[in-house]
Amino acid sequence: MTESTNFSSRFTRMESFIQQLQDEICQALEKKDSRKFQEDCWKRKEGGGGRTRVLENGSFLEKGGVNISSVHGPMSDELAKQLGTKASFFGACGISLVLHPRSPKIPTVHMNLRYFETLSGDCWYGGGIDLTPYFPYPEDFRHFHRTLQQVCERCIPDSYEEYKKNCDEYFCLPHRQEMRGIGGIFFDHLNGSEEKYFNLVHEVGEEFLNAYLPLVDRRINEEWNDEDVEFQHYRRGRYVEFNLIYDRGTLFGIKSNGRIESIFMSLPPKVDFRYNWEPRKNSPHHEMNGFYQPQNWC
């Protein structure tokens, strides 16, 4: 994807992996939907580019995006400070996906896996995957977390609890004192020269479909009503708040002159911001509000 020949073999390996993973995930999701992903390839004038794939107004996905990018160029002092490194020529590649199902019974899911290196010698992996449900199905939440736990322990023993805690703290809205969903795992600045961290990123990506599609299969034929949609749109508002205020990927994309349409692909298509709204007492949605705090799902 990148025209530069100055990056390491780790960089080109990650590029190859994210291209293959994008194909695998899009093909699997299209089997669940009535529509196909639309592909949009783009170039970044400073260097690099990406391949954006978006599916909208489908039978399963109201909006979903699976994006890959590989960008490079000089790093500003401001960006270097944000990333905790020194200004240098940099390369960054990764895959980012967000799926907003039509049904309120099926959770929104997000995954990001990335690799970053500079010609001054810094390099690291980062990523995460988290679930944002709108209906209280604890058995679904346990499946999601147990799948991630197995991946983490297989690659790096005793790592799941740390990465889960990172996720609980990262995908959090401090001004609301709640999480945006029910968490997952999150890691950053993992030493790029250590093979075990590429293995972790690789395995998390390969297990995405196993973590998420069983939830889709369980709920895709369940009926829902206007009250369910009302709560879904209300909680999507929290998703927007997080992405526009706190999300590192969004901020990095803007600071590095990334492609805005691809960056904002993550935003849901329909959202409600209503003053001081709360779900009906004793409803499933009122119960669901209690799950947006850290819990032990394994």
State which percent range the strand residues make up.
25-35%
Structural class: alpha+beta
Helix content: 40-55%
CATH architecture: 3-Layer(aba) Sandwich
Q: What gross morphology would you assign?
A: globular
Please tell me about this protein's structure.
- The chain has 298 residues and is of the alpha+beta class.
- It has one domain: oxygen-dependent coproporphyrinogen oxidase.
- It contains 9 helices and 9 strands.
- The chain has a 7-stranded antiparallel β-sheet with strand order 1-2-3-4-5-6-9. It has a two-stranded antiparallel ribbon with strand order 7-8.
- β4 (89-101) and β5 form a beta hairpin.
- The radius of gyration is 19 Å and the shape is globular.
- The protein starts with 8 loop residues before the first helix and ends in a 10-residue tail after the last helix.
Q: What are the main properties of this structure?
A:
alpha+beta; seven-stranded antiparallel beta sheet; 9 strands; globular; 9 helices; 298 residues; two-stranded antiparallel sheet; oxygen-dependent coproporphyrinogen oxidase
